UniProtKB/TrEMBL annotation:
This is C2H2-type domain-containing protein. It holds the Pfam family zf-C2H2. It comes from Trichogramma kaykai. Residues 30-58, 59-87, 88-116, 117-145, 146-174, 183-211, 212-240, 241-269, 270-298, 299-327, 328-356, 357-385, 386-414, 415-443, 444-472, 473-501, 502-530, 531-559, 560-588 form the C2H2-type domain. The keyword Zinc-finger applies.
């Protein structure tokens, strides 16, 4: 039996589980698995494939020997067909399919009452593709008078036919020629290659006709096909075009093509004649010229007088800032966004966990390029250009300054812990608190001393201060140096400012640090001494006192020398006591 016929009958037999059993007549139909056109004869299907699809499928599946033209299509096939993923859902009966071709075949046979072919101009529906095309040609003036003699495909303009022949049949992928643009818009002077594009431009740009509105976000479109693509890629989160170079996915084939050309091929074909900067798209070059060399910002907001280069930027600004519209909702966490780009940025970083930007100095990764640049400026270059007007504290990024003002000066802490009700200004800080305090997780281990930490930053700070001996933070009051910034701040607050914010509720004694208060309560009021010396069995209330005892008593360390008599002491307090008693006062 012919393979196409056998394959078709297998698909039909699998579809017999629907509500209404399908009766397959002797009038067998053959479906093209590339464009889904239906044929009554197997020979017609073969001829169709040989002429239109010109089999260049060099990538074969190891499991079923099916062949593909692109490696990305082979990968998608292997994931869906051989790993059991059924991504194609029939919205009529709920049945799922592994392959797109099976899905289309099922719809054509099981739901014959469904009109699959709708005109995107007048919404009239047709039974098959050929009738739809005839309708378009007759009623909507889409004349395709230029015929390719090699594959019988028709084109609306002569230059489209020439480009098709050069790129498809002659293999000139880089072919380009100057398109004659004879149709001039009288309103803005823009030129077009054909009359249809000029009419479309005038209708949308100057008359503002956008008749197709999205029911989910109210964004409007000129063509129904643009609306469908928007709903599929934005609200359906579908990205059907995968790059075989880096596996990045795109919602539109044109976006994939541009990505491959600029990122993997490194092509930047448009050069600025004033500064020789290169661009991947002509539009980017025009925007660069207008903003950098001409200094133009033609679109001004009538509410705040802020100016913009592009009209779309003005509309987005007005919608998100002045109208507070956030119409695009994430289907996974229901967070709303004012722009599509912000939605995709959120989806890529939060739900896909992607961090594509790596710092070349410390290998820290970021989800956004702006965050990487801010990190490099603030951390590695030491620039802190943003100053708080209330406390004069400086920050490396504007977002850090805003966060500081919101949490410290305005007291805004929107993230509360559900276990201890402690509140935080950032969600990330809450998650770290939950992980380290309530789950007692310390995932970062020092390779030198095996000490564990809850935060990676704390581990790095520990390694620098303890094992590398670095003390990068100097007190400007007494020149004392510290290995960690928080220790410097603590020193300045408790020693120089005399702040003691932690009071004991039993004896009202005050402490500069909370751990000192807890240690005091544990040893003095509870009488606990949990740390025993393994040499003399003497017990202590804190680990620091035990270590101090071992170093002074058993190791004989005396690091504090009197500058009057050169007598040495193990503790600074004993030195002060000696100077007061023996030398009649403390010599600072």
């Amino acid at each position: 039996m012919d393979k196409s016929k056998k394959k078709f009958e297998e698909i039909v037999s699998k579809d017999n589980s629907c509500e209404n059993d399908i009766v397959v007549s002797n009038d067998i139909k053959y479906v093209c698995d590339i464009c889904h056109e239906v044929f009554t004869l197997a020979s017609s299907l073969i001829a169709h494939r040989n002429t239109l699809h010109n089999d260049r499928r060099n990538f074969a599946c190891d499991n079923c020997e099916k062949r593909f033209e692109f490696r990305s299509h082979l990968s998608r096939h292997q994931i869906s067909a051989h790993k059991g993923c059924k991504d194609f859902l029939c919205d009529r009966c709920g049945k799922k399919f592994v392959k797109k071709s099976s899905f289309f075949t099922h719809q054509k046979l099981a739901h014959k009452d469904r009109d699959d072919f709708s005109c995107n101009k007048c919404e009239k529906k047709f039974e098959n593709k050929s009738t739809l095309l005839k309708h378009k040609k007759i009623f909507h003036e889409v004349f395709r008078d230029y015929l390719c003699e090699k594959c019988a495909k028709r084109f609306e303009t002569k230059h489209s036919l020439i480009k098709h022949i050069k790129t498809v049949h002659e293999g000139q992928k880089d072919f380009a020629f100057k398109i004659l643009k004879d149709y001039l818009c009288n309103n803005c002077g823009k030129k077009f290659a054909n009359k249809r594009n000029l009419v479309l431009h005038m209708t949308t740009a100057h008359e503002g006709h956008k008749d197709y509105a999205c029911g989910k976000c109210e964004q409007k479109f000129v063509k129904k096909s643009d609306l469908i693509r928007h709903q599929r890629t934005v609200h359906g989160c579908r990205k059907d075009y995968a790059c075989d170079g880096c596996e990045k996915k795109f919602g539109r084939n044109s976006h994939l093509f541009f990505h491959q050309r600029t990122v993997h091929e490194g092509r930047k074909d448009y050069t600025c004649d004033k500064c020789e900067k290169k661009f991947g798209r002509k539009w980017d070059l025009l925007m660069h010229r207008r903003t950098i060399h001409e200094g133009r910002k033609d679109y001004s907001c009538d509410k705040c007088e802020q100016k913009f280069v592009k009209k779309w930027d003005l509309i987005r600004h007005q919608k998100t800032v002045h109208e507070s519209q956030k119409d695009i909702a994430c289907h996974k966490c229901e967070k709303k966004f004012g722009t599509i780009s912000n939605f995709w940025k959120h989806h890529r970083i939060i739900h896909e966990g992607r961090k594509d930007y790596t710092c070349n100095k410390c290998e820290k990764k970021f989800g956004q390029k702006s965050h990487l640049l801010s990190h490099q400026t603030a951390i590695h270059e030491g620039s802190k250009n943003f100053t708080c007007v209330k406390c004069e504290k400086k920050f490396g990024t504007k977002s850090d300054l805003s966060r500081h003002q919101k949490t410290i000066h305005e007291g805004q802490k929107d993230f509360a812990c559900d276990k201890c009700e402690k509140q935080f200004g950032r969600k990330l800080t809450l998650l770290l608190h939950h992980k380290t305090v309530h789950e007692n997780r310390k995932d970062y281990t020092c390779v030198n001393c095996e000490k564990t930490f809850g935060h990676k930053s704390t581990l790095i700070s520990h390694q620098k201060a303890v094992h590398d001996g670095r003390k990068d933070y100097a007190c400007d009051n007494c020149d004392k140096k510290f290995g960690q910034k928080f220790r410097l701040l603590l020193h300045q607050r408790t020693v120089h400012k005399g702040q003691k914010d932690f009071a004991c509720d039993m004896c009202e004694k005050k402490f500069g640090q909370k751990p000192h208060l807890l240690s005091h309560q544990k040893t003095v009021h509870e009488g606990r001494k949990d740390y025993a010396c393994d040499t003399c069995e003497m017990k202590f209330g804190s680990k620091s006192n035990l270590l101090k005892h071992q170093k002074i008593i058993h190791e004989g360390c005396k690091n504090f020398a009197c500058d009057k008599c050169e007598k040495k002491f193990g503790q600074k307090t004993n030195l002060f006591r000696h100077q007061i008693a023996v030398h009649k006062g403390y010599n600072g």
